[in-house]
Amino acid sequence: IVDDALHRIDSVLNLNPLAEAARPEHPNGASVQLNHVHFSYDGKNEVIKDISLSIPAGQTVAFVGPSGGGKTTLANLICRFFDPQGGQVKIGGVNVKNIAKEELMNTVSFVFQNSRLIKASILENVRMGKPNACLLYTSDAGEEIMAALHNAQCDDILEKLPRGADTVIGTKGVYLSGGEQQRIAIARVMLKNAPVVILDEATAFADPDNESRVQAAFSKLSQGKTVIMIAHRLSTVAGVDQIYVIEDGQITESGKSRELLEKGGVFSHMWQDYQTSVQWKVAKEVQ
């Protein structure tokens, strides 16, 4: 086990960093474009196959489709966790390869499916979104952190903890549920205030009560931002500006939810299956 862990650590340490532009460019706005993007993890099998799409600044879009279809890979390419082998990924009209990494990370926020918090106070965990923010309640920055916690629907979490936002979480501290951790992570993203936000299955581990609070936090977080949602719970994408159905590395359908339901295609069948699964779950809980 130890040898395997050391091998994995070495594999990360031996990775070459992505090249940076000698003369970085600055994005003009928060639009996102993919132009004929191709990507393969192993150099042989393409998981993204000639995808092109355009997301205007301020819009909320959703990537839906079967597991393994390429949704998260697309999000990773937008964040420049990887570079495509073909095509271009642009933010604000600028190829992400030409944006300085610090500016790119300040431009895009990512809420993962299973957000991780560090062993520290809730205040310190949220402050990671804006490291220069002071933790003092009396400072403007401290008030900004508390406002982010409030907007992320974290008031009920703070009220039940012995020291409120100063409570340490993790080992020898207080443990939070998956949905509660997710709300703390959303507060961190709110404090960062990046113009582009990517939500990757961010309600996957939330119970029904936490899910409603997480959704309310998302609504607040999304105001005035370009938002890309990756979702299996189709109820969360009904009101977005555009839905892209990703299958086998390609966009098979796109449009608003009502348009796609009327087409009777892939999304319509996914919706019917989703509704059936919800009804089955409710019936099981009633028994």
Question: Would you write up a description of this structure?
Answer:
The chain has a 6-stranded mixed β-sheet with strand order 6-7-8-3-9-10, sandwiched between helices. A 4-stranded antiparallel β-sheet has the order 2-1-4-5, covered by helices on one side. The chain has helices spanning 2-13, 71-78, 101-107, 122-127, 140-151, 155-160, 178-192, 208-222, 257-263, 266-286; strands spanning 32-40, 46-55, 60-64, 86-91, 94-95, 108-111, 196-200, 226-230, 242-247, 250-255. It contains 10 helices and 10 strands. With 287 residues, the chain is α/β, with parallel strands linked by helices. Helix 5 (140-151) crosses helix 7.
Q: What would the keywords be for this entry?
A:
about 290 residues; globular; alpha/beta; six-stranded mixed β-sheet; four-stranded antiparallel β-sheet
Task: Summarize this entry quickly.
The protein is α/β, with parallel strands linked by helices and 287 residues long. Helices cover 38% and strands 20% of the residues.
Strand order of the largest sheet: 6-7-8-3-9-10
Mean model confidence by pLDDT: 86
Sequence of secondary-structure elements = HEEEHEEHEHHHHEHEEEHH
Oligomer: single chain
Q: State the share of residues found in helices, binned by percent.
A: 25-40%
Which descriptor suits the 3D outline? Answer: globular
Query: How many helices does DSSP assign?
Result: 10
Q: Which stretches are low in confidence, meaning pLDDT under 50 for 5 or more residues running?
A: none
Class derived from helix and strand content: alpha/beta
Radius of gyration equals: 20 Å
Give me the count of strands: 10
